[in-house]
Structure formats: structure tokens, C-alpha cells
Amino acid sequence: MNSTVATLTARSLLGHRRALLLLALPAVFLVLAVISRWLAGEDSGNTVVLLGGFALGTLVPLLGLIAGTGAIGPEIDDGSVVYLLSKPLGRHTIVRTKLAVAVGVVVTFAVLPTLVAGLILSGGSDRLAVGFAVAALVAGIAYCALFLALAVMTRHAVVVGLLYALIWETLVGNFVPGAQALSVQQWALALTEKIVGSSRSAELSITPAVGLGAAVPLLLVVVVGFTWYAGRRLRSLRIAGDE
Amino acid sequence: MGTLVLDTVSRWYGNVVAVNDVSMTIGPGVTGLLGPNGAGKSTLIHMMGGFLAPSSGTVTLDGDTVWRNEEIYRRIGLVLEREGMYDVVTGWQFVLANARLHRLPDPREAARRALDTVEMTDAKDRDISTYSKGMKQRVKMATALVHDPPVLLLDEPFNGMDPRQRLSLMRLLQSMGDAGRTVLFSSHILEEVEQIAGSIQVMVAGRHAASGGFREIRQLMTERPHQYTIRSDDDRALASAIIAEQSASSVQLVTTREDTRALHVDATDYAAFIRVLPRLASSRGIRLYQVTPADESLESVFAYLVAR
After folding, report:
1. A44 touches chain B (CB under 8 A)
2. Same-domain status, B12 and B161
3. Same structural domain for residues B90 and B214?
4. B196 and B73 housed in the same domain
5. Which residues in chain B are closer than 8 Å to A94, comparing Cβ atoms?
6. Which residues of chain A make contact with B80, given a CB cutoff of 8 A?
């Protein structure tokens, strides 16, 4: 970890009122949670629908995409990454630091709102708020690692990432049985199931496609693998000249 | 110390060869990398700065390979032509961040010194987004100088600078060269290069076309064959008079695009031809309507150096 890299990354991600834009999505989510609680009262079924569908299905992947690609993509696009790369600084250190900042952004704008929304909706019953917050955290880390690596690999990371988040995670991951086993969302849901308890999870339709035994190693492989690969790619990153 | 050695370096992108079999040694002092746009200067500087792998050959600094060697940046300061900046911070914060990234023992003092060197102390607390292009260029210079490197690589550093800033940067580079640093900068303007560079490396179409002091390079350029388009009231008589002289190698009677006749002359001795032409015309009573150098573009000058 390098504090200067972290500061520069955080300023790029949150500077120029970008933080306000990032607040929009969790704000909408929290407003929905309040309205749902007000209209339907404390309800575990509603909580699962909102936290599973909106938080884990949309908020976390989208924030992971914005923070993961935003932590390094714009610097590669405009060439300012040169200022980091022309220093006696390990490329893996740069990637790990940027990942930590991206995860910090996801925790602030997605994980904490998930926890708060969970508490608003369920009032702490069935440990749903904690279960989904932990899922949001691990999914957020995995998305950040995945999208950060994508930003190092391609200049079209946002488009590719958006297609992945929308088509694979949301459509294929939700509806195609075989593909569900390869969805970050499903791996994270395995943790929610564990925290909530398997029988209560079954009642509330929290049914991850993979068990915890497979989910944890898969999450670790994604986080460690993509972070390592991003560092490796950064060592050979070509800064395009004008010629 | 601070000697960059390029040994039979080539770089290609698919079928396009950007740099073709270049060998050169850049030592202490100011060296100008001269060539027209698209000559491969930036590609070469990117390879010297470790931001591009040579497709073949090696680039070393004092014997150490530059590519994939992060430690090399303790000895290299780099200003690339087109990189963006972190415009959400002030000039001071940016240079200080660069000093910290170098893990300098006293980053604040180093940043202060670097900003002072490029005369940006007064504007250091403004956001970079409010700087002019010249100011940004000077802050870039400060980031390259902050760790006091023995080697400085600059890609088109004078672009976007006003004459006063240009002069000030020239003085700065010259003083660095005089202090024993290796300073390499690229430019496509000969006058810019010859004002400060002790030695010049000329690149044309990816190839290393010439090297030497500016007098040698200037001489090579003025001694090359010059082409002229000449119109007169008796082109045939003038053609025979010119060809009888020693200063031209060929004379061609052509019809121009405006449907008028003219002569194309290849002058081998530029200075002698310019002296002899009015005398020839005058002695034969020929009236000269037009004498135009036909081929004075920088590209053609460089092309001659390659074909030499």
C-alpha cells in the first residue's frame, strides 16, 4: 500500500463533485427502503427482494464497475498513469492500493447503504441486514478486483464491464441454471445463506447456486487472481505516443 | 554516468515499423532528437523511458536494462508529450506527490526546489486545471526534476510554450547539460535543437538518419541538392546555359499545373547556383519571371538525409 497513490486515486474518484453523483444510487435505494417500510411495515420477504435484487443485483455491481474501472482507467486513458509508473514503485503495490481505494468507495456507497436499508426494512430480524451487507462487501471486493483488471487490460473496460454486469450477472446469472455457478452475485449469496441460516434462507427464497465450500475459494481466486494479473499487466503497460 | 545505449533497436506494430534498427549512444550534455512528425521520435523516447518494449534490440542505462525495471526511475526524469495530469490537485500538491512517490527523504524541500527551478512558485497553489499549457508543461518539468535525476528525457518539451517560457526552458536544459546531466529532448524544429543541443540525432521514417554537432547537420542539409522551378521569357536558352554550368545536375522543361512552361533544375551546389543564375540570364538577355525553391519542406530535407 502506498498512501500517495491512495490519495491521488481517491481524489480522482471522488473529486470534482463525483462523490455527489456516486451518492445518487444509494440515495434512491434508501428512499425505496423507507417507502417500502412505511407502506408494508417490517417484512423479511420485502427485505430479501430489495436487498437481493437492488443491492446485490444492481447497486454493488454498478458501484464496483464505477470504482474498479475509475480507480485506474481514466489515468490510463489520459496518460497520467505515467506519473505513477515512472517511479521506483512496485506495480503490484499500485494495483493493491488502487483496489483498496475502490473497495473503500464500494463500502461507503454500497455496503453501508445495504446495511442501513436492511435495518430499515427488516429491523434486524433474521440477520438479513448483516447477511446481505457481508455479501455486498465480498461481492464488492470481487467486482472491484475484476473491473480494475479489466481497466488495465482494455480501454473499453466500462462498456465490457457494463455488458458483464447487465448480461451475465443480471440476466444469465439469474435465469440460466448452469451459468449461475459462475456468478459473483451467487457466490456472495452463499454467505448470506450461511449468516441467515439455511432453513430460514429456504423459506425466504435465498437460494444460492453454489454452496459456501465452492463460493469462498471462487471468490478468493477471482480477487487474488485478477489483482495479481492487473499488476502483471501494469508492468508491461504501453503508454501510446502520438506516433 | 547517465549514458543511454540503444543497440540495434527496432519497434514495430503489426506490419508497421515505427523504429528501424536504431543504434545510438546518448551521453552527458544536451542531445536533440530531431525529425519530422511521425519519424519515430516519441516511440524512441518511450523505449528509452521504459514505457515500450523494443521488438528487437536493447535499451540500457549505464548497463541496466530499462524495460520492466522500476528502479531505473531513480535515475530518469521523464516528460512525455501527451500525458494528462491530475487536474483535481494544485501544482504544489502534484509535485509534492511525485516527490513522495520517489520516497525522497525531504519531499517538501524537493518539491519546493523543483517548482522554483521551473519558476512556478508563485502559481503553485492554483489547481492544475486552471493552468495554461505552458504552465502545465513547466509543472511536468518540475515532476521530472524533483528527484534530481542524472538523465532527463523530454518529448517535444517546447510545444505550447510562449517565446519567453521557451527561452527559460532552453536556459534550464542548457544549465542541466552543463552540470553533467544527460538531457535528451525531441523536436521537429531544427532552429530549436541547434540553439541548445551539443549533439543532434536525426530520425527520419523510423531510421537513424544522421548524428553529430549542429554544424555538421546544418551543413548536410544545406549541401544537399536543391530543386528550383524557374520561369523565364526563353526557357530553352536558359536551360542550355544552366546545363553548361557545373552547379546543376539536371534541367527539365516542364508544363506546370497552370499550363505554363517552366524549368525544373536540380542544383548540386546550392550557393554557386544562386550566384550564377542571375549572371547567366543577364548575359544572354533572358528575363527571369520566377525562381522558386521547389522542395524546401523539412520532410524533403530529412528524406535527403535518409537517402544519402
Report:
1. no
2. yes
3. yes
4. yes
5. none
6. 79, 82, 239, 241
Interface confidence (ipTM) of the complex:
0.82
Number of CB atoms found within 10 A of residue B37's CB: 12
- What residues make up the domain containing B9? 4-221
* 3-state class (DSSP) for residue A157: helix
Residue of B41, B69, B70 to mutate, interface with A, max A Cβ within 10 Å: B70
**Pick from A85, A69, A109: nearest CA to B73:** A85
B115: closest CA among B88, B87, B144? Answer: B144
Residue B20 has what DSSP assignment?
Answer: E
CATH number of the domain enclosing B80: 3.40.50.300
**From the list B43, B71, B84, which residue is nearest A78 (CB)?**
B84
Picking from B166, B199, B221, the residue at the C-terminal end of a domain is B221
User: CB contact, 8 Å: B52 with chain A?
Assistant: yes
Boundary-marking domain end, from B221, B251, B269: B221
Q: What is residue B66's predicted lDDT score, i.e. its pLDDT?
A: 93
Stretch among A53-62, A134-143, A234-243, B256-265 having the lowest mean pLDDT:
A234-243
Q: What angle do CA B111, B114, B115 make, to 5 degrees?
A: 85
Per-residue pLDDT band at B308 (split at 50, 70, 90): low
Which pLDDT band holds residue A243 (cuts at 50, 70, 90)?
Answer: very low
- On average, the pLDDT of chain B sits at 86
Q: Which B-chain residues 196-235 have CB contacts (< 8 A) with chain A?
A: none
Cβ contact (<8 Å) for B39 and A243? Answer: yes
Q: What does the pLDDT read at residue B301?
A: 64
Residue B271, pLDDT score: 75
Query: Cell 475459494 sits at which residue?
Result: A217
